[in-house]
Each structure stands twice: as structure tokens, then as C-alpha cells.
Amino acid sequence: MEMKKKHNYFYLKWLIKIILSIFLIFIIILILMKWINPPTTTVILAEQLSFNRKVNQEWRTIDKIGKNVILSVLAAEDSNFCNHYGVDFAEIYKAKEKGFSRGASTISQQVSKNLFLWRNRSWFRKGLELIITMMLETFWSKKRILEVYLNIAETGNGYFGIQAISNVRFKKNSNQLTLREASYIAVTLPNPKKRNATKLTSELKQRAKSIRIGANTLRLEGRASCVIDS
User: Fold this and answer.
1) For 173, which of 18, 32, 63, 94 is 20 to 30 Å away at the CA?
2) Residue 21 CA to chain centroid, in angstroms?
3) CATH topology classification for 38-221
4) Residues 70, 146: contact at Cβ < 8 Å?
5) Model confidence over 148-198: pLDDT tens digits?
6) Cβ–Cβ contacts within 10 Å for residue 208, how many?
7) How many angstroms separate the CA atoms of 81 and 224, rounded?
8) Average pLDDT, the chain
9) Which distant-in-sequence residues (6+ apart) come within 8 Å of 60 by Cβ?
10) Residue ranges per domain, the chain?
11) Are 71 and 182 in contact (CB under 8 A)?
């Protein structure tokens, strides 16, 4: 019995060491990604393996993405981005009131999920997502979080990042998009495989109009000041 306890203690000690080592390596990778762009993401890898094809992605620094895109995406996806620490509890409450028929994930949470995790929903994955989100908010600036999101978010069937979809839909760089065009791209983000920014339904065009109003409100109220100059 004593020998068995010693063996159990030995294995437990090594398990703790392995977990701590993985955690430390992950922190180092996360810190390095403050300056080094991720070569790929778990979502992009899954896309490549599932469909056996190359994806279209063209990285742009946040200062070259364009204010219209930034404001539209914030208005559509996370209007409180500059004011929360990774989790927007007000949005979670609103989603709960509507029976979770709408999403409540912040941009920071979406970066955590798209960059490191898998798409299948589970409490375990959600727990990891929250931990990674807190780490992102600790080690990265808001500008860096948004920059990575705008470059790794799925924006079309085989397209990732705003620049790639801007080229194919509007034949121009993302920083040349008008507010209307940027809002049309932003409205496709919840379902990029099925929505096309140049072929929106009347309902989605109305939603895009609301996004433009929200974008102007963010600009006028200075609520995007953490990522762009007002």
C-alpha cells in the first residue's frame, strides 16, 4: 500500500510538472505573438484539412485596415470592446434575456477561440476560452487583439481576414472601403460561408444600416478610442 502511494505521488508530481510546463510555454507563445503574427490558426487548419484547399488570407496591420472597417466591425460584433476586460457581462445578460438566440462573445473571446481552440461547443472549451481571453487581455493591447481578429476571422468560403474578402467582393483594399461597404462585410461575419457582402437580403441591408449608425455613434462618442484616434 505504501509503495502504491509513492507511485501515485510520483505520477501526480510529474503530471503537475507537465501541466505547468505547457502553461509556461503557452504564456511565452502568447507574449511573442504581441509582435509576431500567428502563422495559422486552429480554424484555418481545420478548413484546410476538411476541404483540402488553400485559404485566402492577406495580413494587414491595424493602421492599414481602415477606420470604416474598424468602426463597422466594432459596431456589429463588440460595441463595448474598449470598455470591457475580455468578457461583456451586459451582453451576456441581454443574450440570456433573449434565450441565447444571439451570441454574446466579445472580439477577445473570438480571437481566443479562432486562434487556439476548436469550434465544437462544450463547457470545457468555454472554460479554456475564458482563461485564454483573460490572458490575451493581460498580455496584448486592445489594438493587437483587434488587429489579429480582423486578420484571422472567417470572412467567406475559404477567405480569412478583412483584406482578403475586400479584394474579392469590392476589388479594393480594406482601407479604401466606404462605410457602407464596410458595414456590408461586417454584417456577414456571423455567417460568412452563407452571406455575401455584395448579395445581401433586404433584412441584412437593414441590419447593415444599423451597423453604420452604430459605427458613427462609436466615432462621435469616442468609444473606439482604444484602437483608433477619434
Assistant:
1) 32
2) 26
3) Penicillin binding protein transpeptidase fold (1.10.3810)
4) yes
5) 999 999 999 999 999 999 999 999 999 999 999 999 999 999 999 999 999
6) 24
7) 8
8) 90
9) 150, 151, 161, 162, 163, 173, 174, 175
10) 1-32, 38-221
11) yes
